[in-house]
Amino acid sequence: MAKTLPGPVYHIKTRRLTLRCWAPTDAPRLEQAIASSLEHLRPWMPWARSQSQDIDAQVALLRRFRGDFDHGRDFHYGVFDRDDRELYGGTGLHTSAGEGARAIGYWLRADQTGKLLATELAAALTQVAFRVDGVRRVEIHCDPLNVRSVEVARRLGFTCEGTLRHRLPGPDGTRRDEMIWTLHEAEYPSSPAASAEIEAYDALGRRVL
Ligand SMILES: CC(C)(COP(=O)(O)OP(=O)(O)OC[C@H]1O[C@@H](n2cnc3c(N)ncnc32)[C@H](O)[C@@H]1OP(=O)(O)O)[C@@H](O)C(=O)NCCC(=O)NCCS
């Protein structure tokens, strides 16, 4: 599908959330959010086991995310409450899925889980991927043991294409299985993701959705 609307989308509002391109000034809030949730993140997010969590490391990380975003290489978003005051987590529309595709990743602070927020943010990013970026396919990759993540994909109408064995880095040098969930452009209009009400804005703050 050809690109349909001007992007990339820098800022998205959902019913309860703001998703926006990271700024290096988010580093203190990011550090606190990760520190408050390390035990919850470590089983599933390799970076929560290995990455240095100090403030300078977070600034460097967010500068890289921001640079990649501005250059159109990869699209990491911070997840905030709707008023952009509190940081709830991180997400992204990742280009690692290849040409004509995006992969959605997500994590939430432990105290913000259990409210369908990951489903809400993944629905919004799915819409942006199909309606603005004009991709043919959106993917969600997760460990089959990560039941909460599996349920996000299933709830939004994605189909499991298969499970790759021993693909994801796990703790202590082990490898985890990786499920690939996909939503194709023909499936998107009738999927639950298409009915989410969102606002999306470009780099100048012009509304594109
Ligand atoms: C994966 C993750 C983002 C999912 O977040 P989440 O809040 O559990 O998922 P959702 O936002 O979709 O919400 C689902 C939860 O809302 C609850 N819920 C509330 N109202 C609901 C409703 N009306 N219908 C269905 N579920 C409802 C569900 O019971 C479920 O909570 P539970 O798992 O405690 O039972 C989160 O668990 C996380 O950050 N995990 C660590 C990082 C990670 O694994 N990332 C993914 C790597 S692939």
CATH homolog superfamily: Gcn5-related N-acetyltransferase (GNAT)
Oligomerization: single chain
Ranges where pLDDT stays below 50 over 5 or more residues in a row are: none
User: Could you tell me which ligands this complex binds, including any ions or cofactors?
Assistant: coenzyme A
List the total number of helices. 6
The largest sheet has its strands arranged as: 7-8-6-5-4-3-2-1-9
Instruction: Decide which structural class fits the backbone.
Output: alpha+beta
Order of helices and strands: EEHHHHEEEHEHEEE
Q: Under the CATH scheme, which class?
A: Alpha Beta
Record field, number of beta strands: 9
Average pLDDT works out at: 95
Rg computed from alpha carbons, rounded to a whole number of angstroms:
16 Å
- Major β-sheet, in short? 9 strands, mixed
Number of domains: 1
Distance between the termini: 18 Å
Give the fraction of residues assigned to helices: 25-40%
Gross morphology is: globular
Content of β-strand: 25-35%
Q: In the CATH scheme, what's the topology name?
A: Aminopeptidase
CATH architecture: 3-Layer(aba) Sandwich
